[in-house]
Specification:
By secondary structure, the protein is an alpha/beta fold. The chain contains six helices and eight strands. The chain has helices at residues 25-39, 63-81, 101-114, 132-148, 187-195, 206-218, and strands spanning 2-3, 15-20, 43-48, 85-88, 118-122, 168-172, 179-182, 226-233.
Length: 234
């Protein structure tokens, strides 16, 4: 089991990419870690596969209107946490994401353009994860990292784009953690970022949720509050 006073295990890295399924994923699951990375001066990018167009129980809310709301909420939350860039892919619908070659290709292109040192994404092997988008994004991200460092998708090699290898991946929403980040000092910032997602707050208490999840994760290493990841080297 590994712990670290820094967010990242050696050798670390400056450019950090989070590959996410929906607006609010990073902020709810690992917003404390994002805030810690920003405090360390890292350059952080969010890549979202969908705009969360089906994330409502309101029959009067249209997907088009909801995507506008949720994109604005995500950009606001990301700015609060210190994220430099937020990008949304086109053509992927909330709840309908599949592990396809097309999605792998789209993620590989972003990896080649941004050239991150480290990638964070969902653990696609988490037992009993019921959300298909999470599983699909996690597996496509890992596969895309393999492709991005090879000669696959050669049509992308234009305008200075070349293969780019990422060696370190951190899976969040995992049931096999091996790395913990102490987030006790940034919990208020995480909760504030969660509150930015007002469209998702009906009947939900972000303060109670964030602190409870933080306590559960922190118990493994006697942190007051923490977030847990599975770190792997590709």
């Amino acid at each position: 089991m590994a712990t670290s006073s820094s967010v990242l295990l050696p050798p670390g890295g400056q450019h950090i990419l989070f590959v996410l399924a929906h607006p609010d994923d990073a902020d709810f699951i690992c917003g404390g870690t994002v805030a810690c990375l920003a405090e360390e001066g890292r350059e952080i990018h969010y890549l979202l596969v969908t705009r969360g167009d089906n994330g409502t129980n309101d029959p009067a809310m249209t997907p088009t209107h909801l995507t506008t709301i949720r994109e604005q909420e995500q950009r606001h939350a990301a700015e609060l946490l210190g994220v430099q860039t937020v990008t949304f892919l086109e053509g992927y619908l909330d709840g309908e994401v599949e592990a396809t070659l097309a999605l792998r290709r789209d993620i590989a292109l972003i990896v080649r353009q941004w050239r991150p040192d480290v990638v964070f994404t969902f653990d696609p092997w988490k037992r009993y994860d019921m959300h298909p988008d999470h599983r699909a994004v996690g597996i496509c991200t890992q596969d895309a990292l393999v492709n991005a460092g090879a000669r696959n998708f050669p049509e992308q090699f234009r305008n200075g784009i070349t293969p780019h290898s990422v060696k370190h991946i951190y899976y969040f929403s995992t049931d096999q953690p091996n790395h913990w980040v102490d987030t006790s000092h940034v919990i208020e910032k995480k909760i504030a970022a969660m509150r930015c997602h007002e469209s998702q707050m009906s009947g939900f208490n972000p303060d109670e949720y964030a602190r409870r999840k933080g306590r559960e994760a922190g118990m493994a290493h006697k942190y007051k509050l923490a977030e847990a990841f599975h770190h792997d080297v590709i």
